[in-house]
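Issue: ligand-bound run for calcium ion - logging full I/O for the record.

Environment: standard queue, default settings, no custom constraints.

Inputs:
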Amino acid sequence: MPSGADDGAQYSFAIEYKGPPVNYDLPRAVPINIDRIPVAAVVGPVSLPEKLTLPVVQPVLAPKTFSKELKKSTVSPTSVFDRSSEDDTKELEGSESTVSPTSVIGFEERVVESGVGCALSGELSSSGALEFSNGLNYRSGEFSDVNNGGKESLDFNSDSNQPEPDPDWASTESVLSLDYPSSRVSSSKALDCDVRRPPLVTFRDIESDDGVDEEEAEVVQAKREPQSKGKKKTCYRCFKGTRFTEKEVCIVCDAKYCSSCVLRAMGSMPEGRKCVTCIGFPIDESKRGSLGKCSRMLKRLLNDLEVRQVMKAEKFCEANQLPADYICVNGQPLCHEELVILQTCPNPPKKLKPGNYWYDKVSGLWGKEGQKPSKIISPHLSVGGPIKTNASNGNTQVYINGREITKVELRMLQLAGVQCAGNPHFWVNEDGSYQEEGQKNTKGYIWGKAGTKLVCAVLSLPVPSKSSNPCGEPLNYVGTRVVPDYIEQRILQKILLVGYNGSGTSTIFKQAKILYKAIPFLEDERENIKFTIQSNVYGYLGILLEGRERFEEECLDEMRKQCSSSQMDANGNNDKTLYSIGPRLKAFSDWLLKTMVSGNLEAIFPAATREYAPLVEELWKDSAIQAAYKRRSELEMLPSVASYFLERAVDILRIDYEPSDLDILYAEGVTSSNGLACVDFSFPHSASEDSINTSDQHDSLLRYQLIRVNARGLGENCKWLEMFEDVGMVIFCVSLSDYDQFSADGNGSFTNKMLLSRTFFESIVTHPTFEQMDFLLILNKFDLFEEKVERVPLNQCDWFDDFHPVITRHRSNSNTSSNNINSSPSLGHLASHYIAAKFKRLYSSITGKKLYASVVKGLQPDSVDTALKYSREILKWDEERANFSFDYSVYSTEASSFSH
Ligand SMILES: Nc1nc2c(ncn2[C@@H]2O[C@H](COP(=O)(O)OP(=O)(O)OP(=O)(O)O)[C@@H](O)[C@H]2O)c(=O)[nH]1
Ligand SMILES: [Ca+2]
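Outputs:
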């Protein structure tokens, strides 16, 4: 087993402090010292039953060996209690409950909470205390066993059985599983409890805060106060920093921590980003929207796997779920079952936040109390009370299903051609068919008319969702006709763009923005991109400078070989080469290389620009640098796009530099490398298309959404793919020029990148979510490929070993010329078609379907435009196929019934 010190050394975040020992007490986030657990203050005013004073720490009191053992075996590197210094160990003595300070303290606090809540209901408190002590005894039993048993492994969870748990993963797991009893207790308590939660909730106007649209949230729970509060805007733990320091926020108490404190303060985060003392507490509802959305800081501090684990826990753990009674429907708070019904129905209200809602069970209309409808959800759900006449606070004297409607709705009805004279009472069904109250016959369909949806969009009124009537479910209403799905789908067509790393998905994504958006990149987006590009350029310069050093050394070696040693001694200046630079530039070069190695390149912005811009100019013009730049093809680390930027380095590194669209297109790292990006657009219609396709006039109104995600972002086994179940099609991007490239495959060996791409392709097309999906294969980087395939045989990739182009003999006399005399296809074309055929065969052997394919040059706008328009055609064909099975006569009758 590694020693504690070694343990720490493996993690960058565990060795954050390297300075001399401090002579003051470090502020600690985990009040592991029993006396310091800030319980008393909170409990003080409430008279508690004696049971409640159960000291949490007691059962885990253990000899020192225990704590040492513990550190070695199960302590998560991310957790707060991995302290290696002797002083700390001392401090911990008598409070070895730190095994899982998270859970222990969580317990303590929870008792306090229920205690406070139970000032109102005595039973609850005792039950809480009881469960608490049970949990503790159970655990203490385990611990004492361990202690009595002596040297045996500390087997408080099965994972630690492994002789050497993978430190990254197993240990996190172990801490999580350790915490399990606590969260179970808390959740079961919450569920079993038939007493409604005491009014933790107060109804008032929300202080409009980050990301909370005032329309949604009006219920705010009493907020938990942070344990310590530094001076305003500083880190709550070390009290350093300003409001500009990047900080992570506790989703319960809003405490903010800087990057050096966050892991100490939040431990292994079994419920996401909460101070260890906030674990088990309900989250601050205003932060619900950001659950599971990782910050850049965490991404830096934790590895991918840990980030995913933490975010998953944050989103799905019991304690963070929306409490049912925070939702009131038609004046009645929901119970747990009702909330489940609401959230699991075919068409649930998305992103449900606490608040008062009204719900028209007949039509499925849904809105905030006192407001116009915002959504149409599944009808006939038994949740909440009966709808009130004044639910939406309308004053039109027109009624729908017993609710007086609002002005905008009335306007919509009028535009839809519904006769509204004489204060009618309408009965509107889920499909939009309507009758006047007391009459039998349907008067028409509100959603049927072509323009209605547009009207609704303009008036911000909801329209039925396509899934509101899942096929197969029989309709109860005789004579009712369903609005066909494809009409609905026309509103927003989603296209998923995926590819193996480096295949060019972000380039295509950026092209789409540039092609179809009036403002491809917003102002602040550009600002960020600017810094990205500038730091890229510093990076390229660094690579160049490193190359220069290498070249200089090589030259010196060469010179030493040629000259005799006596000559060298005689003339000290003999060590100057073509690649030598003066001391000033040398100092800058050393600084830059050092900064790069430390990985802090991005942190120096924007200060660096001001400071170093003049030096960069001097550097770039220096003959040594230019000499090194001439040999750039020997610098493997320098990407091919680098020269595009380096040649303009002086301009780019100026303060007033503004990246052009082309700069952005070429820039690396603009779209987040594993995050999601998406863009909404519609295809602008060209004159030529208009004349051919007059029937599709409204095509330009159709909206598309391109969603880009790459292999890394999908997690192992593509487990995040399910999120994309509502996309209309998938574009899979492959880099043609990968066929002779190799990449580490994770098992330490190198695999051909084309084969890695193929494996990824297979896992995507076989994913259950995409069973019925159309796929378009984009074979990208044709420009590189065309040139490369003339030099490097295609069979460098095993998969392509049966490529025997017929043209070879024919071309032999004009082998090097790319334009063929007899206009037969180039080798590049043949080879790319061959590769397309390979993929198509593979695809149809797996799915039995046809794969669409397109050869693309990602850096050329026209080429990407063509490919994306091709995807639009595929979506249309798909739609038409659906139409064929649809009874047109039904549709036309329906259509006529819309006209008034
Ligand atoms: N020559 C050439 N280069 C391309 C083409 N498409 C993309 N590239 C370059 O290939 C590199 C990788 O492309 P990206 O668009 O970043 O690829 P990605 O799929 O986002 O890959 P990750 O960033 O690894 O996720 C970039 O330097 C692009 O400029 C192309 O058609 N031709
Ligand atoms: Ca990229």
